[in-house]
Amino acid sequence: MRRWNGWGEDTTEVELPAHGAEFLHALIGAGEPLADATLEQVLARVPASRLPAHPQVSLDAEDRLRHARGQSLPDWLAMRSGDFGVFPDGVAFPETAGQIRELMAWAAERDLVLIPYGGGTSVAGHINPQHGERPVLTLSLERMNSLLEIDAASLIATFGPGANGPQVESQLRAQGYTLGHFPQSWELSTLGGWVAARSSGQQSLRYGRIEQLFAGGTLETFAGPLQLPSFPASAAGPDLREMVLGSEGRFGVISEVRVRISRLPDAETFYAVFLPDWPRALEAIRSLAQARVPLSMLRLSNAIETRTQLALAGHPEQIALLEKYLALRGARGDKCMLTFGVTGSRVQNAASLRQARKLLRSFGGVFTGTLLGRKWAQNRFRFPYLRHGLWSAGYLVDTLETATDWSNVDTLLNRLEASLRDGLADAGERVHVFTHLSHVYGEGCSLYTTYVYRPGGSYAQALERWQRLKHAASRCIVDNRGTISHQHGVGRDHAPYLAVEKGERGMAALRALAVHFDPEGRLAPGVLLPE
Amino acid sequence: MRRWNGWGEDTTEVELPAHGAEFLHALIGAGEPLADATLEQVLARVPASRLPAHPQVSLDAEDRLRHARGQSLPDWLAMRSGDFGVFPDGVAFPETAGQIRELMAWAAERDLVLIPYGGGTSVAGHINPQHGERPVLTLSLERMNSLLEIDAASLIATFGPGANGPQVESQLRAQGYTLGHFPQSWELSTLGGWVAARSSGQQSLRYGRIEQLFAGGTLETFAGPLQLPSFPASAAGPDLREMVLGSEGRFGVISEVRVRISRLPDAETFYAVFLPDWPRALEAIRSLAQARVPLSMLRLSNAIETRTQLALAGHPEQIALLEKYLALRGARGDKCMLTFGVTGSRVQNAASLRQARKLLRSFGGVFTGTLLGRKWAQNRFRFPYLRHGLWSAGYLVDTLETATDWSNVDTLLNRLEASLRDGLADAGERVHVFTHLSHVYGEGCSLYTTYVYRPGGSYAQALERWQRLKHAASRCIVDNRGTISHQHGVGRDHAPYLAVEKGERGMAALRALAVHFDPEGRLAPGVLLPE
């Protein structure tokens, strides 16, 4: 069963290897485990609902509890402490667009707040109900998860918005297709959520971001349904899909999604290469991106992340052998691990691999074959489970992400890591910080930074530390030409920083659209556009 | 000097070859040349301006005349007949964003209509002033044509909005870069115009449409400047660039454009292949697109266009030899010409060519080497000049374009060609119609249809025939799942059909944005959103 207070199915456990615990202990001190509340304790705290009965709405305490929080670190602290804050007054599970419209009409009639809910994997506070006079109805789309139609000639598939990653891929693969969209949250996150929050998958280099995959569909708004027909491309005025992408529930509820799919590739292989140091590694990955070598994935860990990954991998003897081999070939203490994939026809893959190897060798890259690449592919959705292992060992882990132009990557990365590393210095606490670049473009790339810190003995302390770190890092990002999010969206946590990049005029235009579609401000108030 | 009543520089003349004239005569009858008005005659008709003097505004009759019309067929009929309709009351030539803002303030103060003007190449009525009580000021951006900055690491260039194709490319090539955006109007059309009308270049397969090239910039609005910083990608809410792309002057005046550029490629070659018939040709081009073979250009003429091109090419002896060669290899009367390009590194180009040849051979493709491809590349911007040759011979030519999903290409193409071919049947007139597909995507492609008809002895008759053909074709497009424009924009000519694809809700949202940015409706009224 899905965990009520953490990530994924409770049958999957990922523990922190002993070697990894020692590594962290040496870096930031002994872990400080916090005590978890039990489900029974939390259920006892769920208040009475303010909603009347409705045939499609569950007022059940456990349903409400299970839809109250996402997966951000503050969400974890809330769930683990049992101090959830606000619960929705009810959860609806519509099965058709018609039922979504009925529920919206009911919300208008009863003066409710509505929160569209996909997989509940937000790490930015998209789906958390807030205190207020209006009752809150969460609208879970999980039952609208079917593949409705495939246009085989045009490679277009139509889905319900609630299909999660495995539901999308299994229904497509049965017919020989793939969407190719694999965010780390893939096991739980949904198509509608990807569209609403502008998701990016690990193989976006081949398949594109959700912006490129989203061909059309329907948004149910309080002004009526916005129907988006699909065209391969159009010059017929502003692209209305772009109002839905990133709308984060503020303009309406996505009731149908048409996506661009691909035939399953002939072949796919992932490789790992070690570059001797960060300057050469950065130059190499930029060159690969700008030379348009047709790869399907590129991920470059900085030296600290490379060391951390090797430490947390377990198997210390095998890692020692690998390190010896790499050192002999010039990749020593500052080495950076680059993972890349080729996907497609065998002829094209061979040509891509040849180009990539040639270019990487010119920067001192040492190839290690396909073993580490295979490991990456096997474990690509495993990281969120590792949070449990770290939690049990008494360490808190969070991630941040942004994107910036190549000319600014080094500056932003250094400042961002420093803002976190030194963020708790006045409390005498060390923070372990590391980064990888995982989505590359001609213009620049994403930066994905992980930080590990100690909770400080109490939930209150843990949250206060997170707030300081998150604020310092967010401020650092927007003050240094980064976007406040490359792939997680804005939600509530990033909303205070959004105006720096959108500008006063941009924020006003988005507000004008929100008022146009939802004059009563019923949909996810406070998300995206701060109140 | 640039022609005042036609396309391009008056030093370039393209005549219709004798063989081509016979070909058209046989198909639709003898040409019927119309008499042209002279510049003096038209200048005498320019009325007095309603504007007071302003240091940046020209009230000169010839300036006003030269900014009154675009390049659509009705524009040609207006210019050639001398019956221009409405002239702008003045033309401003700002040199800075500050001057644009001053002119906008002046327009507000004096209650003027403002028409942003790039290269004046619109074929959909974007820049034509209309009758009305408010004086009309056309805002030409031609003096803001400089390359302002290059970020070499991020491959981003910042330009003034008025740089035309040659100005963009010459300033970039001097430093080893290219934008790679080559619409057929390239010699005259401008960066700001490409953004405002969502242009697509002939090599969009490699470089992307203007939507992918436009990284950011500034839109001067009546609510203040909308600044769009550039990020490689972002999940920070709806993408505001998409409000500027396709805004067609309705939301503001583009004062600066940041674009994604590329290093000049190592190598580039174009090839011509003949497919034996349309069904196999269509399947071949779809397969190439969906297999993601990294080509830089794909253009497939249907059988009628192939015949027409070979007839209009001149050199009948050489063409006869080619036809003999092709017939021996199976490409006879129904053959379709496919031109494709490879651009990039030599290793990649070789791999792409190998994949393309293999795939095309499996559909019966006959390769003819690089001669016809070279010819295409040499003549790629020449077609608009041929309108003069056809005009002199007494034939009118116009083009239409749309895009649709692959599963619908054949249906739409057949209906679209029929709507034009039979469009003047009740007058006993034949219309010569042919089509190519020139922008391909995984989901579908663009259709670019050319039609040639006789003016019927008078300008009034010529215009009436055009209106009937244009309406029939536009209706056919939107009623058959085509977009009203793939690359030319909406303007006034397509505005009446836009609501079919945008829907009532979409049109209302766009109007809400127009009112938000320009509450007095001063900017290009009637363009994009019908009045």
Can you characterise this structure?
- Chains A, B: The active site is at 448 (proton donor/acceptor).
- Chains A, B: Its cofactor is FAD.
- The structure is a homodimer of 531-residue chains.
- Among the domains of chain A are: 34-140, Uridine Diphospho-n-acetylenolpyruvylglucosamine Reductase, domain 2 (2-Layer Sandwich), CATH 3.30.43.10; 147-263, Uridine Diphospho-n-acetylenolpyruvylglucosamine Reductase, domain 3, CATH 3.30.465; 267-380, Alpha-Beta Plaits.
- Chain A is globular, with a radius of gyration of 23 Å.
- Chain A is an alpha+beta fold and 531 residues long.
- Chain A contains 19 helices and 18 strands.
- Chain A has helices at 18-28, 39-43, 61-66, 73-81, 97-110, 165-173, 191-197, 204-207, 210-213, 241-244, 278-290, 303-312, 316-328, 346-361, 371-378, 383-392, 406-421, 459-479, 495-517; strands spanning 57-58, 90-92, 113-117, 136-140, 147-151, 156-159, 177-178, 214-221, 224-228, 253-260, 262-263, 267-275, 297-301, 336-344, 366-367, 396-405, 432-437, 444-453.
- The longest helix of chain A has 23 residues, at 495-517.
- The two termini of chain A are 36 Å apart.
- In chain A, 38% of the residues lie in helices and 19% in strands.
- In chain A, the strands form four sheets. In chain A, strands 15-12-14-13-17-18-16 form a seven-stranded antiparallel sheet, with helices on both faces.
- The model of chain A has no long low-confidence stretch (mean pLDDT 97).
- At the A-B interface, strand 9, strand 11, helix 14, strand 16 and helix 17 of A face strand 9, strand 11, helix 14, strand 16 and helix 17 of B.
